[in-house]
Write a structure and sequence with these properties.
By secondary structure, this protein is α+β, with helices and mostly antiparallel strands. It folds into two domains: about 70 residues, 2-Layer Sandwich (Alpha-Beta Plaits), CATH 3.30.70.330; about 80 residues, Alpha-Beta Plaits. The protein is built from seven helices and twelve strands. The longest helix is centred in the N-terminal third of the chain and has 9 residues. The protein is globular and about 45 Å long. It holds the Pfam family RRM_1. One of its GO terms (biological process) is regulation of translation. InterPro entries: Nucleotide-bd_a/b_plait_sf, RBD_domain_sf, RRM_dom.
Length: about 210
């Protein structure tokens, strides 16, 4: 099923629901447009736009980059919640942090999340032209256990403000997850003769991957 919803990150703090809808209406019929806000009613730096038809979302993505209220925003297809969780055999060492205040620095992310485990990298994404925060960032840990510890906490606050934290999964891993089990690993089906009964039996074989270690 094609996705009708877009995630829009790096919003200007002055951008509201009306401006978000107004901008994205040029690409098609918008059924919903919302800027996510904190408990004080201030923009968290990202929002969502839902179109009437998936093709309209495709048109919007193909028209990037998008500039709203003087800022280049990060617009992409929103991953449905059911697909956002990685499968058990895909190790995840990175988390996404949204709704960051513009004053939050790399060091703030590092300081907060270091209590969950050893960090490889902590970065706040910035606008290439203005060098200002785009309202979200990423933290990469040494191991997957640290990510699980972060996920077990339901509320996270950085510099006194609540943020949105999720596991970050590579697009390639999401594509693999959408394939049927047999399609991922290979399979065949056919008749073979049962050794004990001497009768033809239908059998489907699924081949698991062989991992090599050097």
């Amino acid at each position: 099923m094609l996705e009708r919803k877009l995630f829009v990150g790096g919003l200007n703090p002055v951008t509201d629901d009306y401006r978000l809808r107004e901008f994205y209406s040029k690409f098609g019929v918008v059924t919903d447009a919302v800027v996510m806000k904190d408990i004080a009613g201030r923009s968290r730096g990202f929002g969502f736009v839902t179109y009437e038809d998936p093709q309209m979302a495709e048109v919007a993505c193909n028209a990037r980059p998008h500039e709203i209220d003087g800022k280049i925003v990060d617009a992409k297809k929103a991953v449905p919640k059911g697909d956002a969780h990685p499968i058990p055999d895909v190790p995840v060492r990175k988390i996404f942090i949204g709704g960051l205040r513009r004053s939050v620095k790399d060091s703030d992310l590092f300081s907060y999340f270091s209590e969950f485990g050893q960090i490889v990298e902590a970065v706040v994404m910035v606008d290439k032209e203005t060098n200002q925060s785009r309202g979200f960032g990423f933290v990469t840990f040494v191991d997957t256990d640290s990510v699980d510890r972060v996920a077990n906490e339901t509320l996270h606050s950085i510099c006194g403000f609540p943020v949105d934290v999720k596991k970050a999964v590579a697009k390639d891993d999401l594509n693999v997850r959408k394939k049927p089990f047999a399609a991922r690993f290979g399979s065949d089906a056919g008749y073979h003769r049962d050794a004990e009964r001497g009768q033809p039996v239908w059998e489907r074989r699924i081949y698991l991957p062989l991992w090599s270690f050097s």
